[in-house]
Amino acid sequence: MNVKLPSVRDLVKLYGLSAKQTLSQNFIFDKNITDKIVRCAGITAADSLVVEVGPGPGLLTRSVLDTNVQHVVALEKDSRFIPTLTQLADANDHRLKILQGDAMKVPHSDILQLAGIHRVDPLKRIHIVGNLPFNVATPLLIQWLHLLQQRKGLFGAAEVWMTLMFQKEVAQRICAPVNTPDRGRLSVITQTLCSANIPYLIPSSAFLPKPKVDAAIVHLRPLQYQEMPFDLLEDVLRFFFTRKRKSASHILNLLQSQLKLETALPSSIDSNARPENITTQQFIQLAISLREMGIDRLS
Ligand code: SAM
C-alpha cells in the first residue's frame, strides 16, 4: 500500500458504521485472519482479477490488495461503505474498483468492464472471494454454479476459483463426501461442478458483532467440463433428498411410476442405498439416462 491508511477499526468508528443485521453484517478486524483467507484462496499477482463480494469496511480487501494482483473489484450493497472503500482505492493506484449493488443482480459484464478488462486471458485465473452475507451466501453459490455450468459471465471468461465464507454447518454440507450424514442436495450439486474443501474454520469470536455460529472458508475449483442436464439433475436431487430416509429402490420405483415409465430406470445405484450413499457420478448418470428417455424436467 502506498499511503498510510487509518485502521479499519478506526474507520468504522470514524464513519459510525454500525453493523446492520438486515445485511448480515459481521466484521473481521484481525488482519492475520483476512491474510490467511487470501492464502487459502491462492491469489497471486499474476491472476487476472479478484472479485470480492461484500467487502464492508474493507479489511479482507486490504489483504487481497497486498498480493499485488492488478485488478480487484469490490461489490458492496451498503452505500455507507463506499467512502472508506474509495479511500482504499485512492491509496492503491486504483487497482481497486468499487461497484455498489446487489451481488445477486449485478451483471458480470459490468464487473469486467469496471475492471477495464476487455479480453480476459483464459490462461489467467479469476477469483471470487468473500466473507459473504450469510443470508445470501447459498443463493449466490447456486447462481454461480449455474453460470459455471453454462460457462457464462465471469465463468465464461476464465477459470474461476471461489473462496467463500459460510456458516460452518453450511460449509460442511457443501463439502460432505458420499456416505456421510451431512451429505445433501447442496453437496452433490456443488461437487458435480467443483472440488470443494474447507481449508479454514473461523470461530464466531473472530467477528464483530459475534454471530451465533462459527464460520468456515470453503475453497471451490471447477472440475473438467462434463455435458449434463443440470436443471434435471437439480430436480432429481430434490426428488431423492426430500426422501432422505427411503431406500434408492423405493425412490426409483416412485420416480418410475410418477413419470409413467413402462421400463425400470437404468441405474447402477445399490437398491438399499439411501440418498446420502449415492455418488455424485451416479446422480449425474441418472439425470443423463432420464434425459435420454426424453424427460426434460421432473414436475
Ligand atoms: N468483508 C467484511 C468483513 O469481512 O469484515 C464484511 C462482511 S459482512 C459478513 C457482509 C457484507 O456483505 C456487508 O458489508 C454487507 O453490506 C454486504 N452485503 C450484504 N448483502 C449483499 C449483497 N446482496 N450484495 C453485495 N453485498 C452485500
Automatic annotation (TrEMBL):
One GO BP annotation is: transcription initiation at mitochondrial promoter
Protein name (Swiss-Prot/TrEMBL) = rRNA adenine N(6)-methyltransferase
Q: What do the Gene Ontology cellular component annotations say?
A: mitochondrial matrix
Enzyme Commission designation = 2.1.1.-
Q: Which family does it belong to?
A: Belongs to the class I-like SAM-binding methyltransferase superfamily. rRNA adenine N(6)-methyltransferase family.
Top EC group? transferase
- For the ligand (S-adenosyl-L-methionine), the binding residues are 26, 28, 54, 76, 102, 131
Query: What this chain does, per the record?
Result: Specifically dimethylates two adjacent adenosines in the loop of a conserved hairpin near the 3'-end of 18S rRNA in the 40S particle.
The family database entries (SUPFAM superfamilies) matched by this protein are listed as: S-adenosyl-L-methionine-dependent methyltransferases
Compartments in which it is found = Mitochondrion
Q: Name one Pfam family in it.
A: RrnaAD
| Catalysed reactions, as listed in the record | adenosine(1779)/adenosine(1780) in 18S rRNA + 4 S-adenosyl-L-methionine = N(6)-dimethyladenosine(1779)/N(6)-dimethyladenosine(1780) in 18S rRNA + 4 S-adenosyl-L-homocysteine + 4 H(+)
Q: Please list the residue ranges annotated as the Ribosomal RNA adenine methylase transferase N-terminal domain.
A: 33-224
Q: Is Transmembrane given among the entry's keywords?
A: no
Name the keywords, alphabetized: Methyltransferase, RNA-binding, rRNA processing, S-adenosyl-L-methionine, Transferase
Q: Name one GO molecular function term.
A: 18S rRNA (adenine(1779)-N(6)/adenine(1780)-N(6))-dimethyltransferase activity
Per the record's keyword annotation, is Methyltransferase included, yes or no? yes
